Structure formats: structure tokens, C-alpha cells
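comment on this one:
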Amino acid sequence: MHSPDHRAARLSAFDAFAGELTRARIADVECGGLIAGEEIDALDALARRVWRDVNDWGAAMATIETSGIAPFDPSRAAALVLETVFDEALAPDPWRVLSAALDLARAA
């Protein structure tokens, strides 16, 4: 179980990045706040799915003989997915929201 202080820090980071994204969207378009809210919800859902999928990979890896190789690390795998798949696919603000949402999903 994770300490409340760590959870609060993760929530604070998520809120800060979500606020940055919202402000950027509001500056871009008239209804940017609505767009940002939907985008933040989608990024949060994506982060939770990445975390679930990575854990499913870990369960599958547990059935494969891997002697002599480091154990599967879901946190490391999730970070690598974020860096390799989404780094170029997302602009910086949404990427930071996704990263913070992934931190929250990991801590749940």
C-alpha cells in the first residue's frame, strides 16, 4: 500500500499538468475547457489501460521460463511504453498528463 503523502504528490502533479493542458486548450479555442476535460478523461483512461495491459504482460511472462533474465518489471515496462510509443505521438502537455495519470494508476 502506498502512503497518503505519495498519493497526494501524484494527485498534485496530475492536477498541475491537467491545469496546464486546460489553459493551453482554452487559449487555443473558444470551448477549450470542454475539449481539455474530455482529453484529460481520455488520457486518464489510456493510462489505466496501459497499466492493466502491462500487468497482463507480466502475468503472461510468469508462465514463460526466463531463468537467468531479470524479472519482469511492470513499472519499467509502462515507462518504456510511455517513452517509446507516446513520446512522439503526443504534444508535451498531453504527454505530461498521461505520465501523471500513469503514476496514479501505478499507485492505485
